[in-house]
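Please decode residue identities from the backbone states below.
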């Protein structure tokens, strides 16, 4: 399950623009220049300007948020977390700040700390969706599939994307809740009908349900949309061998070998089938 880096940055900018008169013209100049560099993806320069502003007005929480966002985009995740923690200390009831801190922890692979930050963001803003998406990602990595399912159900009830349905379907498949997994793969396909991975996932559900014709259709659709989808070719070959279509299975394994001559699943499957 992949996750997006979606910083709550523009909220910070809006708050900053509202407070700009209070912090003085010099700080305003540093901030505006820093924002210009940030938008140009010149993060080192943006950091330099925001640090100048922070030296003049260290009690202004949004400056630390701007610094955190610049460090985060610059790949300096631990320093970003430090800046966001300063902002959290000053504005503990701001859910966006906790969310951004969670992103920094996530990039550091500090999953427990990231989960705590995202949960705090979710608690502070009941309408927020992204904290729950990221919680689902973390819980899935940790094998906490029931918690991941709960987080994704919250997202799907609010603003689902095809990826949310696909991710939930994959979790339900792991939990052997195949009919519900099929339902969410199908919902994902309605939104994104040309995604080979969704067809592959749906094919796996049909296969475990022994609906071989439907599984065959989905695996072949995945291959049609991505001829190098080696997992779909291997799964199709294994299914064909299972139902006694040995020659067809061998052809699919050979097609898979043409993609990757060292793929373990392909080599084992072909060796078993021959």
């Amino acid at each position: 399950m992949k996750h997006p880096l979606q910083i709550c940055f523009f909220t910070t900018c809006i708050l900053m623009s509202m407070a700009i008169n209070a912090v003085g013209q010099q700080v305003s100049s540093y901030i505006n220049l820093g924002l210009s560099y940030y938008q140009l993806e010149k993060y080192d320069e943006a950091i330099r300007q925001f640090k100048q502003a922070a030296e003049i007005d260290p009690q202004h929480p949004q400056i630390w948020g701007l610094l955190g966002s610049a460090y985060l985009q610059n790949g300096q995740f631990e320093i970003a977390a430090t800046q966001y923690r300063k902002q959290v200390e000053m504005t503990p009831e701001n859910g966006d700040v906790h969310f951004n801190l969670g992103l920094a922890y996530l990039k550091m692979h500090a999953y427990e700390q990231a989960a705590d930050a995202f949960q705090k963001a979710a608690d502070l803003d009941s309408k927020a969706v992204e904290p729950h998406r990221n919680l689902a990602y973390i819980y899935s990595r940790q094998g906490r599939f029931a918690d991941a399912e709960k987080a994704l159900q919250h997202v799907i009830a609010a603003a689902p994307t095809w990826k949310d349905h696909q991710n939930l379907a994959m979790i339900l498949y792991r939990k052997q809740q195949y009919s519900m997994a099929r339902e969410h793969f199908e919902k994902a396909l309605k939104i994104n009908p040309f995604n080979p991975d969704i067809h592959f996932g749906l094919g796996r559900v049909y296969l475990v349900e022994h609906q071989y014709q439907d599984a065959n259709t989905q695996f072949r659709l995945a291959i049609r949309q991505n001829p190098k989808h080696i997992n779909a070719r291997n799964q199709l070959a294994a299914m064909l061998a299972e139902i006694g279509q040995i020659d067809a299975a061998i052809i699919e394994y050979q097609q898979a070998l043409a993609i990757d001559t060292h793929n373990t699943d392909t080599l084992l499957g072909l060796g078993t089938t021959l």
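Observation: Residues 227-274 form one domain.
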